[in-house]
Amino acid sequence: MTENEDAEDLTHTTREGDVQMVDVGDKPDSERRAVAAGEISLRESTVGAIRADEVGKGDVLATARIGAIQAVKHTWETIPMCHGIPITNVEVGFELRENRIDCEVAVETTGKTGCEMEALEGVTTGLNVVWDMVKAIEKEDEGGYPETEIGNVRVLDKEKRALE
């Protein structure tokens, strides 16, 4: 804690230092949307194999899309202080570039708390699934992945609208 912070200003910690979940019970429901993005760098030949649907494990992007959606739905199980929220919509998009794949996940909910963590979980899991699906062709003989990297994960947009 810095000099300017009091224990009572912290939302996830009690005065005694115990961890707590934020109480959102008194907040009104609102429509919420969050969009997150990230990318995975790959060899050009790997991106080509994905484009041509020639990856031995199967359809990389279809599998990654399922993984991203599953991650969105289970965020509350992996991030300790996240609330379980009713997901009303998930959109997962991939864009194949020369030597990378961009992933964007949009999540919508109606409730008392936002959904940016769900969007971020969708992106990171979707990209991890891509890595898992292509690791055999990305891996070099020594076992490393010198050109494979997940990065630039970020929240692009967060919206909150009052219910009509």
TrEMBL record:
Pathway: Cofactor biosynthesis; molybdopterin biosynthesis. Keywords: Lyase, Molybdenum cofactor biosynthesis. InterPro entries: Mo_CF_biosynth-C_arc, MoaC, MoaC_sf, MoCo_biosynth_MoaA/MoaC, Mopterin_CF_biosynth-C_dom. It catalyses: (8S)-3',8-cyclo-7,8-dihydroguanosine 5'-triphosphate = cyclic pyranopterin phosphate + diphosphate. Signal peptide: none annotated. Substrate binds at residues 81-83, 117-118. Residues 21-160 form the Molybdopterin cofactor biosynthesis C (MoaC) domain. The keyword Signal does not apply. Its EC number is 4.6.1.17. Pfam families: MoaC. GO terms for biological process: Mo-molybdopterin cofactor biosynthetic process. The active site is at residue 132. One of its GO terms (molecular function) is cyclic pyranopterin monophosphate synthase activity. Residues 1-32 are annotated as: Disordered. Residues 9-32 have a biased composition (Basic and acidic residues). HAMAP family: MoaC_A (MF_01224_A). Belongs to the MoaC family. Homohexamer; trimer of dimers. Catalyzes the conversion of (8S)-3',8-cyclo-7,8-dihydroguanosine 5'-triphosphate to cyclic pyranopterin monophosphate (cPMP). This is Probable cyclic pyranopterin monophosphate synthase. The lineage of its organism: Archaea, Methanobacteriati, Methanobacteriota, Stenosarchaea group, Halobacteria.
